[in-house]
Structure formats: C-alpha cells, structure tokens
Amino acid sequence: MQNVLSILFCLSLFYLSVTSRVKAYVTILRFQGLLLTVLLVFPFIHHFSIFALILPATLFIVKVIVIPRYINKIILDLDIKRVIEPTIQPFTFLLLVIFSMVVVFVASNILSKSADIETIPFASGFTAIVVGIFVIIFRKKLIIHVAGFLVLENGIFLFGTAVASELPMMIELGTLLDIFVVVFLMGIAINKISSTLAGFDVTVLGRLKD
Amino acid sequence: MDLLFYALTIQIFSIIAIAILQDNRKASIAAHLLLITGLILGFAVSFSTLVFSNLSSQSFSAFGIPNELFRFDALGLFFLCIVQLVAIPTTIYSYSYLKHYLDEGKSIRSNLVFYAILLISTQMVVIANHAVLFLVCWEMMSTSAYLGMVFEKEKREVQKGAFYYLVISHVVVFLLYIFFFLLHHQTNSWLFSDFHISPESGNLFIALYILSLIAFGMKAGFMPFHFWLPRAHPIAPTVFSAFLSGIIIKSGIYGILRTFQFLNPTPEWLGWLVLVVSMISAIFGVWYALAQHDIKKLLAYHSVENIGIIGIGIGIGFIGSAYQSIPIQMLGFGGALLHTLNHAIFKSLLFIGSGVIYKNLGTRNIELMGGIVHRGKYFVMLFLIGSIAISGIPPFNGFISEFIIYNGFFTTAKELKNYYPLLMLISAVGLAFVGGLAVACFTKINSIMFLGSERKEVKHFHVSIYEYLSLGIFALLCVVIGFYPQPFIGIVNKVLNHGFVPGNSASELLKINWFFISLIFMTVLSGVLLFYFWKSIVQKKYGSRVSAAWGCGYGGLTPRMQYTASSYADELNEISQTVLVYHKKMKVPEGVFPIEGAFESHSDDLVDSKILLPIFRNISSLICRINFLSYTDIRYYIAFILIIISIYSLIAFLWN
To answer: Looking at the structure, do residues B593 and B650 belong to the same domain, yes or no?
Structure first.
C-alpha cells in the first residue's frame, strides 16, 4: 500500500513538471498532502490510538486545508497572472525530472542492499526534494517558489516515513511548524512588496537590496 | 542550592515583565527591581555557600534539572559571586542610565531585555558543568552583549566597533567547539567534572592548551588579541561597557583557570609563555592607555593592562605547577583570583564614572573636560578612589592583589634557585613599571578632567542618587578589601584548596602578615586625616586664596592655556614612538606676533594598523576576485547548492 501511494506521489510530480497553470500547482499540493495523510494513518488502522492521530490530523489541516487556501487567497488578492513563467520548455523540464528520478531510484536501490530502507517511498521522497529544488530554480514566479518549497518539504516528509525509525514524531511536527511559518512569512513578504514591485518575479527582487 | 535557581528564575521574570508591561517607565522599574532582587538573593546564596559550606557536594533538585548539568565547585562559585556582586550596583546604575534615555523618549525595552539575558547567561556560564550547556550559555552571553552594544545603532562607529566584537566572539566560539570536541574525544564525557588529561598524552595536551589560551585569551584581551577591547568599549552603552570590562573579559580568565583544572601539571615553558605574553599586555596596555584621549578607550586599554597582571599571576601559578611547588601556585593563582575580583570592582566603578561624565558633558574627549571637582565634589572623590585602586597604590584593593603577585615573584626566586632569581627580578621590575605608568595615566586623567577650570562650558552637572549609590558600593568594596583583606584572602585560599592546588591548609597566602598591612594602612589614613584637619584649622585661621589653576603667578589666564592631557603624556609616549604608532602634527607659532599655531597628536594600535588591517585587506581583495560568481538572483544560488550537494552525495555514494 505504501508503495502504491508513493508511486502516485511520483506521478503527481510528473504532472507538476508539465503543467503551466498556477491553480494546478495548488491542486497538486492538496493531493500530495492528502496522500501523505493517508500514508501516515495507514499503519495505525490495526492498533488505533488517539495520540498517534495527532500528526496526521495536523498534517491534514495544515497541508490540505490551510496552506492551499492561503495561497489561493494570495493569488486572488494580488491578482497574480494564472500562468507560470517557466525559463525552460516544459518538455525539457520533464526530461530533467525523469532523468533525476531514474538516478535517484537506481541509487536508492543500491543503497537498500546495505541500509534498512524501503526503496520506493525513500526514492519518491528524494525525487520530490530534487524536483522541488528544480521548480525553484527554473520558475520565475515568487508564488511558485513557495509551491516548490512545499513540494520539497513533502519530499522530506515521505523520506521521513521511509526511515521512520530514525525520525521521531517531534521532529516531523517541528518541520511542519517550520513550513507553516515560512509560508506565512513568504505570503506577508509578497503582500508587502506588491506595492513597490508590479510583477512577482524573483528576477526583480535584486532591486530590493539597499 | 535550589534557592540559586529560584534567584535565576526571578531574574528571568524581569524579561517577562518587560514583555507584559506596556508603559516604558513601569517596565523599566519592574525589570530592574526583579533583577536586583534576583541578584541579591543569588549573591546571598552563592556567597554563603562559598564561605560557610565545605563545598564537597552541592546538590539541588529545582525544576527537575539533572544534577550533573551544573556544578557548584569553589572556582565556579567564586566567579559566580564576582558576577553577582558587580551586577548589583551595575543594575542600579542601569536604572538611572536608562531613565535618561526614557526622558528623551527613546525605547529602551530591547536594551533592557539584552541586559537581563546577558546577566542570566553569564551566571550560567560559570556554573555550567556540561560542555554543551557551557557553549550555549557562552554564545548567549556573547550575542546578547553584542545586541546590547548596538543600542545607538544608527552611528557608524557603533556598527564598526560592535562588528569587531562580533567577529572575535565567533572566532572564540569556533575554537571552543574544537577544544571541547577534542576533550570529549579524549575523555568520552561531556562533563567538566570528568575532564582530566595528564601531560603524558603529548601533542594533544599541548594542542588543547594552545587552543584554550588563544580562545579564552581572545575573550580576555591578551595582547595580540586585545584589539577588540578599545573598539568595542567606547561605543557600547555605559552599562554594557562596565559589564563587558568588569565581567565578560573575566570569563576568559575563568576559562583559562578551568583549563588548568582539566590539564595539569603544566610544562614549564607554558608558564613562561603566559608570563611573557601577560607582561607584554600589561606594559603596552597601560602605555597605549597613556596615549588615548577618549576616556572609555583609555579605560579599555587599562583592562588590557589588568588582564595582563592577572595573567602574570596565572603564569607564576603555571610555573609553580611545573615544579609541583605549592607555595608558588598559591601565590600566583591567589593573586590572579583576587585581582580578578578587584579589577571587576574598580573597573566597573571607573566605567560608570566615565558614563556619568559623558552624560553631563556630552563628550568622551579628556582634552575638553576640566574643573569637574567644583561641580561634583563627592563624585570626583569616588572616581579618585577607583583611580587609586586601579593604579595599585595602597591602601586600596588593587595594591593587595599586586602585593600577592610580587610575593609570588619573590617566593619563586626563593624556591627555585638556579637562574630564577634574576628572571623574577626582571619580572618584578616590569610589574613595577606597569604600576608606575598606571599612576602616570591616572594622574593625567584625574588632573585634566577634574582640576583646573572648565575647558568646555558645563551647563549643569548632576549625579543622581542611583549613580551615587552604585559608585558608592563599588568604592566601599575597594576600601574594604584594601583595609581589611583577611576574609577575602581566606575565600581565595579556600577556592585554591578545593580542587585547584592539592590540599594544603598552612597556606602561603595566610602567612603574609595581613594584620600588619591593615595596621599600616590605618596609620597612613589617620595621618592623612590629621593633616586634613590641621589644614582646615590653619585655613580657618589665616584664610585661603583662590587663583587659576596652573597659573604660576600669571594673571590673564583662559581655560585654553591650561596644561593638556597630551602634553602631560608626551614625554612618555615619545620613548616608544614605533610601538605606539604615535604621530604628532605641529605648527609652531612663528615671529614676534604669531598668527596661528596648531598641535595634534594621535596614536594607533600597532596590532591594529600593522598586522590586522593588512591581513583583512588581503582577504577582501582575494574575495573580490571570486566576485564574478555573485548574482542578484536567488535561483543561481539554489542551483549552486544543488550542484554542490550532488557532488557531495556522489562522493559519499562512491566511498562505500
């Protein structure tokens, strides 16, 4: 089951790399949040406890409800253009993603022989981290940067479930809080600079320095 | 010991009080009251523990803190006492200082919060037993001191001076990390109480010592690393510069003494190294001080001098440790410990005094001051007590600790025959020279600042009751330690006997006839008082005549014709022109009716101008060469990070 969910997660990354709508990014973030929640709830079906549900519940509220809504609100409030502004062709981007995914999967397959990890969730998580960074590198829009950052964080989460024995719950909750704060700060920053800078491009951010 | 943690908690409440209370004045009053209550309680606990208990095991159960996290051994408690003792009057002064800013309508919240954090973390540093806790508290101490320092952050010199301090603290912490990791690696423990390495471990032992001496020596301000002191002290708010000079540089001394506890006995050459470095710090510290015009900068150089004197004591102690001689160690370390206490007291007094002068006159330049004695007689008297004490003149406390160090020289000469008598004689002469220069320096500032007539018009000179209170406490301590040193010597002796110098009750420190010294001081004091009475009686009988200072019988004097600080110090400065980097620019008035003349003197720091700045200039020119990699777009940087991570992971992958 975990493997199926991880592969679904990977497929969402492919969609991410070819789409050119800002809305689609938000949908993917929701979808990924949902996947992660299910992934976390799944082990507890047999031995249920309220305490174990804290993390999935928080995850669901933050990733599926609050953050996507907030991003949508920013898009509406600031009237951001609905298309992303890529710096390379979507097809090239897709090739890049596929290439890195292959490398990561092969590498983690080799790793799994020596270390105690579950290959598919581990590799999917790692791929998401790489794709998140790619999104940040190859997209201009600031709001897409936030989305890329969130994809990266989702990757870390999946990665965490693959090596669950290493990462205690407190740390995962900590990262969750971190992301929450970062997204809000980014939102506030975008709101603030919208009055001075017309576009929400990172290319013009350089002008903000003193 | 639980009470001590409650005392710390009361101090932490002061931060909460600042956060809760809306009104600035109320917040300031509440925070200061809480801080002082906490400090007095803490001081009472730590002092009584240090004096009355047998110090073998001090357990505590407050707030469920694990018992091994803190340690209340003699050395830690001694420094804790110093911190709290000095912090009480400084906090009283802080209230008056911040009130001045409140009247101007400036927000003082941040400054007060950083001061509270600084106090709490400094107290934690000296009692921490876990290396990581120590490093965390150390970092908090350095950072909060920096943040407090940049109170007037809009000034360029403040940014620059504080930056020096910030860089130095980072280097220190970096070295300390290596130091503690090496210790942990060797002993497999993080606890100070478990750290012990004997000289048999060879190079590691020496490496650890060198690391510790550089790191803690930087913090303390020994000579090649002293450059941050004269830059950071003048620009900091007076409360912070007093605390910085009184306490924080002492944390370096604390570290060196702790290192000695971890790593002993020391090799002989190390003792000599410390002694020579300290001697250089002491002599050139005071010499540089003599050339300064800025009162706070001058006091900062005096800190270098006094740290040097403390270091001389430590150096003698190290030599004693190399020869396993208990009397030498007792006198060396004893002198160092007592001087640490003394310097903390009189340096805080002098800094707070300089703060009061700055508040009233609006300048730190000695050349623009004068005639303060006519405005605030008692203030000048208190400042004078501090000046006499720092110069090491009897009957105040500076003399007592220097006397112990002199005794250390002579005992070393006596115990270790060979070539030692000659070397110790040279060292004693060096220390005497330092004392002489200190006297010259303080006669300079006292006479120029306080005597004569006003060079710059003083509108009003007001010293508030809080300022008097805080200066008074310091001055009282100077007098008490000077006239009645026995109990303080007893405390130092106890500290040394507990886990420092292997147990010996018939101490060399107590053998000095302190009663006799007190008696002589009393006699001298009564003589002075008698003379004063005689003088006032005679004055009443015959009357007195007041004329302009430095007048020498000439009538038409203006304040500009007075003797200046530069001219007073000129002779001494010219002797060592190259080391002091002492420049003079002079335009001598010529002809029968001279039109104009000018004089300007200026002294740079040798380490600063000849070593440090060229190094940094080279580094920055090197960095300029890789400037082509800098972009304004964040995406390039992320790409760089990705590339580097890929390379690293590739290496890690192929490694197995």
So the answer is: no
